[in-house]
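Sample entry (440 residues):
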Amino acid sequence: MNTLQEALETITWLTNAYPKEAMDVIRANKDAAIPYLRAALQKALCEQDDLADAYELHFYALFLLGEFQDRGSFPLIMQLAVLPEETLDQLIGGAITEGLNNILYNTYDGNLQLLEQAVWNTEADDFARAAFLSVMGQLYLDGSLPKEDWQNFLRQIIYSEEEIGDYIYSEIALEICDCHMLDMLPDIRQLFKDNRIDVTVHGEYCDHVDAMFDYNKPYRQKLCTSPMSADTLKNWAMYEQPPRERKTDQDWEKLLEKAARNLSKPEPKVKIGRNDPCPCGSGKKYKFCCLNKAPSGLDLIESASDRKKWLKEYPETDKNRQEGRLYLADYYDSEAIEIDQIVYLALHHRSGRPIWDPEPKFTQNKRTLLYLNTAFEKFLEKVEKEGIQTLQEYDKRHSIHFTCAEWLDVLRNLSEESGDQELSRQVKHTMETMNAALSH
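Predicted structure, serialized as tokens:
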């Protein structure tokens, strides 16, 4: 295959194998190929549902124009991307979720208004609208979209009376976290309060707080800031792939048994030497710190190693501070963080046990009750010390993952169920007193 025309003809129709040779010829003739690739997009836009099923040139064109970073194709790609869901799915299928955001980012021509209007477009595919948000988030991270403009746009949607769909609200909440805009946590809280978040998409409010401070994984919207490669297509299921070893039913049973054993395996006990660093993190030697200390109240609920495991997703401390990152300690005092960690241990969802061997509800409730009771005692001490009058005042100054009303209500119900009427009355009295103070 020597000519550009032969290469374009090869990718005009769907083939069983990925057309690597044709793609390389097109790359070698990039400038001459771009008008043909743009024309393929124009053809798809004109014919839409009438486009022949086997016609694929527009599909390859999307990825090649993204690789070429062809700014002139951005308006065409946007016209395609805002087509109704069924039409868009028929035209580009999996590219909606597996490449559209990178293609848009790499062809972006500076017309922010096109992206903004597309996000508001409730006739467009929700996954495509999420891709538009993703591009805007990356533009903010690049420094080319001012923070004030980005936040104003997001807040316009959050507080608009126009409904734009739970999926988009959920994506907005995650974009806020991915961009680490801590001052917008109240806006995420408002979305949850208004029941606009689909928790099956990215989790509860507490999961969004964790995501806000998480710098340890590549984010979904961290886009391809260097030229993307259209060759990412070669692993798609639409092409023939090298044969893989098929697993038998017996193989799957062995894998499930191994997974069950690993999940139920107790945490290995590590012997701590007298001169080793204390596992509490103080920086002192074990013999000068916790060696002879009596077990704390928390140790009677769960071991320190268990607590560490279940706090794995909790925002890391500023012990190994890195420039440019936010930490809880920048916004909350150590007492507030301690109380929040205890509440988190009580209420945050614990994954890891196999579904066929769930933790008994009684065991879970008992642990939750003990943790929340400990948090309640520390909460009362802090409220008294600082003269805090209302739950709302405490929330504004100190609550992180859960509001007071959320965890105190759980504590009241569990204490009542367990027969601890005195604790139930005390929690109820505290909630009523601090709510009454708000009305005066």
